[in-house]
Design brief:
The protein is of the alpha/beta class. About 35% of the residues lie in helices and about 40% in strands. It has one domain (about 35-170): Roll (Nuclear Transport Factor 2, Chain: A), CATH 3.10.450.50. The chain has a seven-stranded mixed sheet with strand order 1-4-5-6-7-2-3. A hairpin with a 2-residue loop joins β6 (about 145-160) and β7 (about 160-170). It is globular and about 45 Å long.
Length: about 170
C-alpha cells in the first residue's frame, strides 16, 4: 500500500513539474551613451562573457592594456605585463617583455585603433584565460599603417598578489 501511495505521489509531482513553465529572462534596455563613453568605446568590447568578480577584474586589465596601446603608455604596459611575458605575433615571431615594449617606447610601433569583441574570460584558480577577436590599426615604422583583424588568447596569472599578462597569442583572420 505504501509503495502504491509513493508511486501515485511521484507521478503527481512529475505531472505538476512538467506543467510549470520557466519564467522568461528580462532583457535590459540599452542605455544611451555619452560622448566620453563613445570616445572610449574603441577599447571596450561589444560582447563580453563573464561570471564573477575575478572575471570582471581581468576585463578591467584587458581594457587597460588596450588603452595603454592607444596611449603609447609604456609605464602602464610595464605594470600589466609579467616579466616573463611570451608575446607571439600572428607571423609567428615570439617576443619577450623587453622586445615587445621597445618599439612602443621608441615610437616605431603606434596604435590608432583597438576594437575588441567576443571577449570571454575563464578563470581556473590563479590562472585566467581570455579569448577575443580584435581589429587594430597600427603602424610599424617605416612601414605604412596597416589594419589587422585577429583572434587572440591572453593568459593572466596571479603573481605576487596581482594579475599580470603572461602570454599573448595572435591568430590573424583573413
Amino acid at each position: 500500500m505504501k509503495l502504491i501511495s509513493l508511486l501515485i505521489l511521484l507521478s503527481f509531482s512529475f505531472s505538476i513539474s512538467a506543467q510549470t513553465k520557466p519564467k522568461p529572462i528580462a532583457s535590459a534596455k540599452p542605455k544611451e551613451s555619452s560622448a566620453k563613453e563613445q570616445k572610449q568605446a574603441a577599447t571596450k568590447p561589444a560582447t563580453v562573457t563573464t561570471k564573477g568578480k575575478v572575471e570582471k577584474e581581468i576585463l578591467k586589465l584587458e581594457h587597460k592594456w588596450a588603452q595603454a596601446l592607444l596611449d603609447e603608455d609604456v609605464a602602464k604596459l610595464d605594470t600589466l605585463l609579467a616579466d616573463n611575458l611570451q608575446y607571439t605575433r600572428s607571423n609567428g615571431k615570439v617576443e619577450n617583455k623587453a622586445s615587445y615594449l621597445d618599439p612602443i617606447k621608441k615610437g616605431t610601433t603606434t596604435y590608432s585603433m583597438v576594437k575588441r569583441d567576443h571577449v570571454k574570460v575563464q578563470v581556473n584558480g590563479e590562472t585566467a584565460i581570455v579569448t577575443a577577436q580584435w581589429k587594430a590599426r597600427l603602424q610599424n615604422k617605416p612601414n605604412p599603417p596597416m589594419e589587422t583583424k585577429a583572434r587572440y588568447l591572453h593568459v593572466y596569472m596571479k603573481q605576487n598578489g596581482r594579475w599580470v599578462l603572461t602570454t599573448h597569442q595572435n591568430t590573424e583572420i583573413k
